[in-house]
Write a structure and sequence with these properties.
Structural class of chain B: mainly beta
Helix content of chain A: under 10%
Strand content of chain B: over 45%
Largest sheet of chain A: 7 strands, mixed
Helix content of chain B: under 10%
Order of helices and strands of chain B: EEEEEEEEEEE
Order of helices and strands of chain A: EEEEEEEEEEE
Shape of chain A: globular
Radius of gyration of chain B: 13 Å
Radius of gyration of chain A: 13 Å
Number of strands of chain A: 11
Number of strands of chain B: 11
Number of helices of chain B: 0
Largest sheet of chain B: 6 strands, mixed
Structural class of chain A: mainly beta
Oligomer: heterodimer
Largest interface: A-B, 22 and 26 residues
Distance between the termini of chain A: 33 Å
Number of helices of chain A: 0
Distance between the termini of chain B: 38 Å
């Protein structure tokens, strides 16, 4: 596999469930990101990991918990979500963290999350 | 606070026509301005980018025009094709991160 792979593609969960989103990149990049995409809104940066260290937490509620065990894998653990958390969650990677140089982000296809 | 304002929200163009998407910003620390293209069911992908020391950059049918004094930049899609139907996001980078516009959905009618 090449590029950035996200699983699952679709997820429906109740407000009391616990689930995890997985992201894997095969590009040899050092930075990984979680973005939230809602209709008619800018892409919303949630978390940034650079060399496995979390470098940004964009005031995200604690019901979202990221994990980055190595430079190639990123998880987003979800628990007690709200219906307004329904959105497309995108994982991205870059060679260096955005903000340094002309950094191109490579996105996965996203997980479409519906919270009932 | 939205750092990059993008318009229009959507547009429809006939095949062969020109699509124009506009973005404006306030932060003069922005030093890199990429455009990302997103097809349904896919993540965004870098389309073309410009730095503020250049007023125009062209790649194939896609052109970025940049007006530093007005703090505005735009994407022009020439000879629009049905395969160009997608959502386009402008973005701007400072030392810390990339800020995205809200996106423009372009529909090219055959």
């Amino acid at each position: 596999e090449t590029g950035v792979t996200q699983t699952p593609r679709h997820l429906v969960m109740g407000m009391t469930n616990k689930k995890s989103l997985k992201c894997e990149q095969h590009l040899g990049h050092n930075a990984m990101y979680w973005y939230k995409q809602s209709a008619k809104k800018p892409l919303e940066l949630m978390f940034v990991y650079n060399f496995k260290e979390q470098t940004e937490n964009n005031s995200v509620p604690s019901r979202f918990s990221p994990e980055c065990p190595n430079s190639s894998h990123l998880f987003l653990h979800l628990h007690t979500l709200q219906p307004e958390d329904s959105a497309l969650y995108l994982c991205a990677s870059s060679l260096t963290q955005s903000g340094t140089g002309d950094t191109e982000l490579f996105f996965g296809s996203g997980t479409q999350l519906s919270v009932l | 606070q939205q750092q990059v304002k993008q318009s229009p929200q959507s547009l429809i163009v006939q095949k062969g026509g020109i699509s124009i998407i506009n973005c404006a910003y306030e932060n003069t620390a922005f030093d890199y301005f990429p455009w990302y293209q997103q097809f349904p069911g896919k993540g965004p992908a870098l389309l073309i980018a410009i730095r503020p020391d250049v007023s125009e950059k062209k790649e194939g049918r896609f052109t970025i025009s940049f007006n530093k004094s007005a703090k505005q930049f735009s994407l022009h899609i020439m000879d629009s094709q049905p395969g160009d139907s997608a959502t386009y996001f402008c973005a701007a980078k400072d030392d810390y991160k990339l800020s995205f516009g809200a996106g423009t959905t372009v529909t090219v009618r055959a």
